[in-house]
Amino acid sequence: MHFDPQERLGIFIDGAHLYAASRNLGFDVDYKGLLGVFRRQARLVRAAYYTALLDSDEYSPLRPLVDWLGYNGYAVVTKPAREFTDASGRRRVRGNIEVEMTVDVLTLAPRLDHAVIFAGDGDLRRMVEAAQQLGLRVSVVSTIRTQPGMIADELRRQADQFIELGDLAPDITRRSAEPRPRTLPLRPSERGRPTPAEPFREPVDLPE
Hints:
By secondary structure, this protein is α/β, with parallel strands linked by helices. It has helices spanning 15-25, 31-39, 63-70, 98-108, 125-133, 153-158, 165-172, and strands at 8-14, 43-53, 75-80, 82-85, 91-94, 114-118, 137-142, 161-164, 204-205.
């Protein structure tokens, strides 16, 4: 990674993308360690985490992570996930966060020198280009070590710097459980998983 220690840095994380990419690479993210990595590189101004939540759920397995992040250095941006039934009659959930991330990056651009985007969707290429036109350096973090890779070629080409997520793994892998408050008992499927739960991927099947 190439950073200027005097740069004002912003981190913007598509939570579902980071979850999927890290799991495909075989590790769980230590979000505290992730902040530490970038604080050692430059002057961290903002770290934002974006995800969708399904309001109709009595209990969301993502909620403990969202709460923990909000108390530990992250600005958490959530939006309601949209539930629908596909052509085969299966219940699914969608929750794109590209608009929220784009608005924040461009709004904060005057206060930043460098934006680091954890994402892979090619629809964000235009946002990266607009940020660059405002004077920001933009790095994109994802992976090309999976089959297929998890970042769109157009987004990778537009970035000033592509950072391979797998190269960060030694510094951001969660190695031990951290106590996190929970208001409800663990479900059986969650036992043994210290933190955090899975963000909504797109699409997500729901039980009938």
